[in-house]
Amino acid sequence: MDCVEQSDADAEAPSVIDRYFTRWYRADMKGNPCEDHCILQHSNRLCVITLAETHPILQEGRTVKSINYQISHGCSRLNNKVSGKSKRGAQFVTDFAPLCRITCSDDTEYTIYSCIRGRLLEVNENILETPNLLLQKPSTDGYIAVILPKFEESKSITESLLTREEFEKVVSKRSLCQPS
Prior knowledge:
alpha+beta; CATH 2.40.50.100; six-stranded antiparallel β-sheet; about 20% helix; about 30% strand; globular; actin filament binding; Protein Abitram
């Protein structure tokens, strides 16, 4: 095999995300047009919450001013302290539990939701220091949080989510989303 063939083979290798995770989507979260979320579900049940590539935050020219995991006066996702095999201390979240609020430089604010029920294992504190990770690598280093659904619910949580194909149909039918 010569060098050209080898580089073509490398270019076609699937990413870690494509290889080990199944992508699920929630379109127009809580009725907000284009506020789409992506859930990356690993074979071990762990779910990584990210922004879908169609989310307004990821559109051209946007910059993130701040990210706040303080959901209410008494609830901060940063205070989530998980320990042990049974994940003691993890906050339990429901489908529509807010995870964080992201403010863009034009002062528009977006609330990012959990999309699934389960235990909040971790929030991505790296995006607090480097908010551009959210824009540059939304599916990897710029993820929002990691949630572990209950074992008995791990199959049923995807019933309310869209597959990639279903999501692409929804996106193709909508008119272009304009920033608010």
